[in-house]
Design a protein that fits this description.
By secondary structure, this protein is α+β, with helices and mostly antiparallel strands. It has helices at 2-23, 44-47, 72-80, 94-98, 123-130, 133-147, and strands spanning 55-62, 65-69, 106-113, 116-120.
Amino acid sequence: MTLFKSLITGAALSVAVATSAIAAGVELNASSTGLALQGYDPVAYFTEGAPTKGSWKITSSYNDATYRFATEEHKAAFEADPEAYLPEYGGYCAFGAAMGFKFDGDPNHWKIVDGELFLNISQDVQERWVADIPGFIEKADANWTNIADKDPASLQ
């Protein structure tokens, strides 16, 4: 009976994950399974000051994406105010958004500016972005209104 319950639970979880992946829109940089931030804990950037892998056992869904957390406390903080922890530009590369494109944001290349989390695609791009953060944020904010609902491939 325990094996049967495990199989049913696994099947239900698979359906839930697949459904969230189908529902996640192009404005959010999520995997094909609906996993955002490549499984990194969005709260840890603010509390730990470092990218921290989340646990597959501690998750929360928001805007049709799944977020993982390192601790139950991080999950509770996220659920209380998700917008406070979400990366800007749907988790896409901040420099790319400034250029009018949507490139994957790498959770290991990040910076918090004025209480907002920004990701970039690589160390080289991060260094370039840091050279004029206010200018690139201004450009990205302006571009985001036009590209948020576009498929990344259509912007190439």
